[in-house]
């Protein structure tokens, strides 16, 4: 019996081995490419655009069993103070309209671990902080969300800052009772800067 291989047999063996190796390599998962992880946006100064003194035009949607639904308008000012070297700020809102006088504050706190802001609203007539809305700014637009009980029903709450410039900005609050599929806007504020001088930082 001749144990020697012919040239044809050697060539065929090499061909089969090469194809088997290619199949095995194709089926072997490859490790994902490694590279530097992009740094997460530091949003600590995302509210700096609003520091200062502003003229505020406010519209609030009111629901009344007798009068139905109507928008109520107010005019006044909002003053935004920097706290903790920009890691927090506080808004002091004071407006008047045909429906009366409104005073409120909004304490905003930046969480450097989460890279998010929490916004805590209080009306002087109630004297308690609301559930904080939490979120961040992306591409010049700020979106913040929470879940609250309104008139006995749990709803989603969304706060949005948009149309931001050096001397103006637009704010809207909306509620959703269907998990975010539809939204009803109920608070609209358009601010125009009164002074380019930033408000004096609050001291606590």
Quick overview of this protein structure:
With 204 residues, the chain is mainly beta.
Total of helices: 1
Main beta sheet? 10 strands, antiparallel, barrel
Order of helices and strands: HEEEEEEEEEE
Strand content: over 45%
Rg over alpha carbons: 30 Å
The beta-strand count equals 10
Give the number of domains.
1
And the CATH topology?
Answer: Lipocalin
Query: CATH superfamily, called what?
Result: Calycin beta-barrel core domain
Distance between the termini: 101 Å
Widest β-sheet, arrangement of strands: 1-2-3-4-5-6-7-8-9-10
Structural class: mainly beta
> What is the CATH C-level name?
Mainly Beta
- Dominant shape: globular
Q: How helical, in percent, are the residues?
A: 10-25%
What's the topology here?
Blueprint: H1 7-27, E1 52-64, E2 68-83, E3 88-97, E4 100-111, E5 116-123, E6 133-138, E7 141-150, E8 153-162, E9 168-176, E10 184-195
Could you characterize what this model shows?
The protein has a ten-stranded antiparallel barrel with strand order 1-2-3-4-5-6-7-8-9-10. It is mainly beta and 204 residues long. The chain has one helix spanning 7-27, and strands at residues 52-64, 68-83, 88-97, 100-111, 116-123, 133-138, 141-150, 153-162, 168-176, 184-195. The chain is globular, with a radius of gyration of 30 Å. It has one domain: Lipocalin, CATH 2.40.128.20. The longest helix is centred in the N-terminal third of the chain and has 21 residues, at 7-27.
């Amino acid at each position: 019996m001749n144990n020697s291989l012919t040239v044809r047999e050697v060539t065929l063996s090499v061909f089969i081995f090469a194809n088997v190796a290619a199949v095995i390599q194709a089926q072997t998962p490859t490790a994902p490419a490694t590279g530097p992880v992009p740094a997460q946006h530091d949003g600590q100064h995302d509210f700096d655009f609003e520091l200062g003194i502003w003229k505020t035009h406010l519209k609030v949607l009111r629901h009344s069993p007798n009068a139905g639904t109507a928008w109520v308008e107010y005019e006044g000012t909002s003053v935004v103070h920097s706290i903790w070297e920009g890691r927090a700020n506080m808004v002091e809102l004071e407006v008047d309209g045909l429906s009366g006088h409104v005073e409120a504050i909004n304490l905003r706190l930046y969480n450097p671990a989460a890279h998010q802001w929490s916004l805590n609203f209080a009306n002087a007539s109630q004297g308690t902080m609301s559930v904080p809305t939490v979120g961040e700014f992306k591409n010049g637009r700020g979106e913040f969300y929470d879940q609250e009980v309104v008139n006995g029903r749990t709803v989603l709450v969304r706060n949005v800052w948009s149309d931001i410039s050096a001397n103006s900005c637009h704010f809207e609050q909306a509620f959703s009772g269907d998990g975010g599929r539809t939204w009803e806007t109920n608070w609209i504020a358009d601010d125009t800067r009164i002074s380019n001088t930033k408000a004096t930082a609050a001291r606590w």
